[in-house]
């Protein structure tokens, strides 16, 4: 035991050993996936390297570059030898989409402290804004223009989706800002349902959303003449936007606006007394958070080529919230991990267990009632997970940490500034 | 010159009159104390000045301009900040961040500029950190820069609240029982800090305080509230010997002590 902990300690100290071990891990799991291309476990182990990378004791830029290389080159390259290539990339795309959405919700819940149980509504708004115009649907109510719009407009619609979702975020925010806490949660829950029901019923008197039939044959995105249709291609789009979203969140978190959010979260009255406008600050959180969701909605619609209201139920809002709480409210790396864990649990682990159970039952005659299949029980499973976290790990998988400043540097700069001031005043006195 | 004038200020909560017809003139760069027994309406008075409560009637004038109808953050923009009797820090933010929130209105960083990493915004953020550090030195918290505010000891939290309010560069600083829960040594430090604020930073100070030694020592002028009414006002010596104040608040002991 002691030798083991001594070994770990030694590891933590030595940068070189850490890097060597990390590279060895990536090579090993990469080779594993190469040799066992259909093993989900090998795929997940390779992805796990990103989490290890996060804890490595190397500088931030090196981490970013390594992470991007692994996710954008190594993983897709090795996975492309597998029959499950498209499935893997589909999972990757979903993780990217939900990570960005969870980061958006994290602004609202984690930074600004506003509980939102209807967050999926913004995803829906983004998805429908592309679906309507990139299919024949728009021609049913638009008096001008030719529809469907070509796939080149997809790129423009990523921004349109963000803006439309932001507008809906403000629409939700304005009436909701008068209520707090539990009441806010209930109103947002209602808002989410209202949007879903509206989308499901806006086929008369004017047919805008095609009602419960949904909108089909949505034009695939077009990238310099290449029509984007496969998961492996969408993976890169989702990944790219995900990177942009992380950049925006990290920059905002430690900016004037980010501090205002956290101040409002910690104490509204004191925040106002320090000159922070409550309404504007909360609306900014709703709008910016919603816009991430809207962008990802556009990608979702393009990827599925079909949308209907069933993709945007209350369950989906809950799932995004679970990602934030499980990962760690307010913690950017935590929320990313939370989103990845939930998506992988849902799409890989639970379905694999289901498959395994059904082969068990057919091979050995053990009958498992379909109601007990893990897929059906995911609500129960996520519910239990939440309870366990609420009891034993309230801060989530990677708890939020405030950014620490370099005090020595501040001390130095402060002394320099003082000297400069002194010089200025003595100079002024002379002249 | 009067920087702040309060005219017939009244606040009713349902049937309860928390303050009634208060009149007050605060001279620029002075230290004014508001004293009175528990429940006299002192905090309510501060809450009306900072727009946390809307007065039932009456007027509040800052340099002749009425503050009635403004939002709390707007009052802050006009140059009035405060501390709170029941400390209200941003507990899950660092000590440095708390002070930086105080600077909010002096930082003109739009979030779009932040995202574009405009050089002048980065420079401003850096300078703000240094300023915040200087303020922490000023209130004696330079060793706790990266600590979460919620983890500080009580006296330190009170000083951080003052530091945060200072960061807003106010014209008028309202202190609600700043010495509450402080030991004599801390109180003395606080006294010097308040003097310093007035002389070096030209801040007008209004404070609510139950520590009579402190009040009598540093105030230029004292207002006494009781049951929401202004029962006396004057220089410390006048208040000390005012029979009504002695009866309502100071008690007979205060006279004997002297
Ligand atoms: N929001 C409110 N709603 C109802 N009554 C209130 C409210 N705020 C204050 N009061 C009442 O107004 C009266 C004055 O309260 P206030 O807090 O101003 O007293 P104070 O002079 O600050 O007392 P202390 O020295 O104990 O702090 C009290 O009777 C109090 O109960
Ligand atoms: Mg009080």
TrEMBL record, chain B:
<dbReference type="InterPro" id="IPR051120">
    <property type="entry name" value="ABC_AA/LPS_Transport"/>
</dbReference>
<keyword id="KW-0067">ATP-binding</keyword>
<dbReference type="InterPro" id="IPR032823">
    <property type="entry name" value="BCA_ABC_TP_C"/>
</dbReference>
<feature type="domain" description="ABC transporter">
    <location>
        <begin position="4"/>
        <end position="252"/>
    </location>
</feature>
<dbReference type="Pfam" id="PF00005">
    <property type="entry name" value="ABC_tran"/>
</dbReference>
<keyword id="KW-0813">Transport</keyword>
<dbReference type="InterPro" id="IPR003593">
    <property type="entry name" value="AAA+_ATPase"/>
</dbReference>
<dbReference type="Pfam" id="PF12399">
    <property type="entry name" value="BCA_ABC_TP_C"/>
</dbReference>
<dbReference type="InterPro" id="IPR027417">
    <property type="entry name" value="P-loop_NTPase"/>
</dbReference>
<dbReference type="GO" id="GO:0005524">
    <property type="term" value="F:ATP binding"/>
</dbReference>
<dbReference type="InterPro" id="IPR003439">
    <property type="entry name" value="ABC_transporter-like_ATP-bd"/>
</dbReference>
<protein>
    <submittedName>
        <fullName>ABC transporter ATP-binding protein</fullName>
    </submittedName>
</protein>
<keyword id="KW-0547">Nucleotide-binding</keyword>
């Amino acid at each position: 035991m002691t030798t083991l902990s001594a070994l770990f300690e030694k590891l933590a100290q030595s940068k070189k050993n850490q890097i060597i071990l990390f590279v060895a891990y990536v090579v090993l799991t990469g080779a594993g996936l190469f040799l066992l291309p259909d093993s989900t476990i090998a795929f997940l182990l390779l992805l796990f390297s990103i989490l290890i990378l996060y804890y490595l004791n190397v500088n931030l830029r090196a981490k970013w570059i390594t992470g991007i290389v692994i996710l954008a080159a190594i993983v897709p390259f090795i996975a492309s030898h597998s029959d499950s290539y498209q499935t893997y990339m589909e999972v990757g795309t979903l993780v990217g989409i939900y990570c960005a959405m969870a980061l958006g919700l994290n602004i609202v819940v984690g930074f600004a402290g506003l509980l939102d149980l209807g967050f999926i509504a913004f995803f829906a708004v983004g998805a429908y804004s592309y679906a309507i115009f990139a299919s024949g649907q728009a021609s049913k109510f638009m008096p001008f223009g030719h529809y469907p719009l070509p796939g080149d407009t997809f790129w423009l619609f990523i921004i349109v989706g963000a803006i439309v979702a932001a507008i809906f975020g403000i629409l939700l925010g304005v009436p909701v800002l008068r209520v707090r806490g539990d009441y806010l949660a209930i109103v947002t829950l209602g808002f989410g349902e209202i949007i879903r029901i509206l989308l499901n019923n806006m086929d008369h008197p004017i047919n805008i959303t095609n009602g419960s039939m949904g909108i089909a044959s949505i034009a695939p995105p077009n990238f310099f003449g290449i029509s984007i249709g496969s998961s492996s291609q969408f993976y890169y789009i989702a990944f790219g936007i995900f990177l942009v979203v992380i950049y925006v969140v990290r920059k905002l978190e430690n900016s004037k606006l980010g501090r205002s959010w956290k101040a409002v979260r910690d104490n509204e009255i004191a925040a106002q007394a320090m000159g922070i406008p409550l309404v504007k600050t909360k609306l900014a959180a709703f709008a910016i958070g919603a816009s991430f969701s809207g962008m990802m909605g556009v990608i979702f619609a393009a990827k599925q080529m079909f949308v209907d209201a069933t993709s945007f139920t209350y369950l989906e809002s809950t799932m995004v919230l679970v990602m934030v709480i499980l990962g760690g409210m307010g913690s950017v790396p935590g929320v990313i991990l939370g989103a990845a864990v939930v998506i992988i649990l849902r799409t890989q682990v639970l379905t694999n267990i289901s498959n395994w159970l059904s082969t068990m039952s057919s091979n050995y005659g053990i009958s498992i009632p379909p109601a007990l299949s893990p897929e059906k029980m995911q609500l129960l499973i996520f519910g239990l997970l939440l309870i366990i976290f609420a009891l034993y790990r309230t801060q989530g998988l990677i708890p939020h940490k405030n950014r620490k400043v370099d005090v020595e540097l501040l001390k130095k700069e402060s002394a320099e500034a003082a000297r400069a001031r002194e010089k200025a005043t003595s100079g002024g006195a002379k002249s | 010159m009067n920087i702040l004038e309060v005219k017939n200020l009244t606040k009713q909560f349902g049937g309860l009159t928390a303050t009634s017809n208060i009149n007050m003139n605060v001279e620029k760069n002075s230290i004014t104390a508001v004293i009175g027994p528990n429940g006299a309406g002192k905090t309510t008075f501060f809450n009306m000045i900072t727009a946390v409560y809307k007065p039932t009637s009456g007027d509040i004038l800052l340099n002749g301009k009425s503050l009635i109808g403004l939002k709390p953050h707007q009052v802050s923009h006009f140059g009035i900040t405060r501390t709170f009797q029941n400390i209200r820090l941003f507990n899950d933010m660092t000590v440095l961040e708390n002070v930086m929130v105080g600077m909010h209105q002096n930082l003109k960083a739009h979030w779009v500029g932040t995202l574009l990493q405009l050089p002048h915004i980065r420079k401003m953020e850096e300078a703000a950190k240094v300023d915040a550090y200087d303020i922490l030195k000023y209130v004696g918290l330079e060793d706790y820069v990266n600590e979460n505010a919620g983890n500080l000891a009580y006296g330190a939290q009170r000083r951080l609240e003052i530091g945060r309010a200072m960061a807003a560069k106010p014209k008028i600083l309202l202190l609600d029982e700043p010495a509450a829960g402080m030991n004599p040594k801390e109180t003395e430090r606080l006294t010097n800090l308040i003097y310093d604020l007035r002389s070096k930073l030209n801040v007008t100070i209004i404070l609510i305080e139950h520590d009579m030694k402190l009040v009598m020592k540093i105030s230029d002028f004292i207002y006494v509230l009781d049951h929401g009414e202004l029962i006396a006002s004057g220089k410390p010596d006048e208040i000390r010997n005012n029979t009504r104040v002695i009866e309502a608040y100071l008690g007979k002991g205060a006279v004997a002590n002297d």
